[in-house]
Amino acid sequence: MADVLVIGAGPSGLAAAAAAVRRGAQVTVLDAAGEVGGQFWRHLPASRPSGRERVLHHDWAGFGQLVAALPPDVRLNAQVWAIEREPGHLAVQVAPAGGGTTVTLRPDRLVLATGAHERVLPVPGWTLPGVYTAGAAQAFAKAERIALGRQVVVSGAGPFLLPVARSLTQAGAAVAGIYEASGPARLVRGWGSRPWQVLGSAHKLAELGGYATHLLADRIGYHPGHQVVEIHGGARVEAVTVARLDADWRPVAGTRQQLACDAVCLAHGFTPRLELPIAAGCKLTPDRFVAVDDGQRTSVAGVLAAGELTAIGGADLALASGEIAGWVAAGGAPEDAELRRAQRRRTAALQMAARIEAAHGIRPGWLDWPAPDTVLCRCEQVSFGAVDAALEATCADGLRSVKLTTRVGMGLCQGRVCGRNAEQYLLARRGRDSFADQAGTDRRPITVPINLGDLARLAPAADDRKADS
């Protein structure tokens, strides 16, 4: 019987665990959160359930089926803080969230399903109270029924802006407008290319129709080719400046206008959480996703990856790739009849992911949005001007030198918020495609903070699963 460890209990992790159990494996599921469901099915805890969850979530019935199929060994509030390569296997180091006794797991097969982070492009004023990532606003609306403002502006790029706006209104907020950075021409090209492929994701068109109906009913304006380029306020957000953008997302002169609001939600796409795949030694694609084959197997034997680690394709891709990964991890084959439907769904979802990137992918003109005093690294309060000064003083062509000089990306979040933005800005300033030292902000041998006392108590040969058996 295969011993399968699934890291992550979002859609891809849940689908992987269910498929591995169905294939007859012994399965353990780890997640750092206190509830399963990930960011997609973020819901009230079982201690205070709501009868409205079906209204607030897509495919709530499907979530219930996946939860019912989970193995007995599901460990929540479990932080995987390191993966170490040992002869013949990987050692997965796990500690309770917030600190505690660390244990080591050595599974036969490992499925990585850790999802992605939101990416937010910085503008002047983005550190004011009242500015949130769109995902945080949605999480508060879904998991706590809290609207983070009375008059909210949603700005960024991608279809994610639409469900966020709906969640805000369901929680009682008024959405002053949705500002999509990509202009109409790019949206038409991206979404209109090879229209027959959309037939494989026809339900997505129904979702889009639902969002359009919601925008009309609540009189929410959708403004393609526009973006929040400055946020104003004292103790908190009071207004934003919106500007029209050109095809490369550079603000067009003479188009700025100010709009009153008390909260702003920003989202410019997602970046995969690569710390654990990199620690495991997985090969990455040129566009910085985990490279996988048709069975979701990575370049490392016994390690599989699913969901947004492999492409940003939403819940459809997460569920399909997770099912394939779990089945293969448990000893199945990608060509098995049991996976035919999942393979078709994955193909359609990957086509949708390519469509989303073509229509909404980040353009280089965003580098014109920040001012010299705009904060780049929130944790260490490093501004774009400070980075410019360091580049001029050191003539550095490597990432490590700039980090050590300015501390950009070295705060508590370890570059998760600012990392990709800092990399893109530094490379643009140097006119390079890669850093001279080949460094990257996703490489973190210790992926989450851990107490030194907990580390000292780590037993070198500990394997709590085998000890319990």
Walkthrough of the structure:
The structure is a single chain. The strands form six sheets. This protein has a five-stranded parallel β-sheet with strand order 3-2-1-7-18. A five-stranded parallel β-sheet has the order 9-16-10-11-12. It has a three-stranded antiparallel β-sheet with strand order 4-5-6. It is globular and about 65 Å long. The protein is built from 15 helices and 20 strands. With 469 residues, the protein is of the alpha/beta class. Mean pLDDT is 88; it is low at 461-469. Helices cover 33% and strands 20% of the residues.
Offer a quick outline of the entry:
The protein has 469 residues and is of the alpha/beta class. It contains 15 helices and 20 strands.
Give the end-to-end Cα distance, rounded to a whole number of Å. Answer: 14 Å
Q: Roughly what percent helix? A: 25-40%
Determine the structural class based on helices, strands and strand pairing.
Answer: alpha/beta
Looking across the biggest beta sheet, what order are the strands in?
Answer: 3-2-1-7-18
Keywords:
469 residues, alpha/beta, 20% strand, 33% helix, five-stranded parallel beta sheet, disordered C terminus
Strand and helix map with partners:
Elements (H helix, E strand, L loop, with lengths): L2 E5 L3 H12 L3 E5 L22 H4 L3 H9 L4 E3 L2 E9 L2 E8 L6 E3 L3 E4 L3 E3 L12 E3 H10 L7 E6 L4 H10 L3 E7 L3 H9 L9 H16 L4 E3 L1 E8 L3 E8 L12 E4 L2 E5 L2 E3 L2 H6 L22 E3 L8 H16 L10 H21 L14 E3 L4 E2 H11 L4 H8 L12 H12 L21 H5 L7 H5 L1
Parallel strand pairs: 1-2, 1-7, 2-3, 7-18, 9-16, 10-11, 10-16, 11-12
Antiparallel strand pairs: 4-5, 5-6, 8-17, 13-14, 14-15, 19-20
Helix pairs in contact: 1-9, 4-5, 6-10, 9-10, 11-12
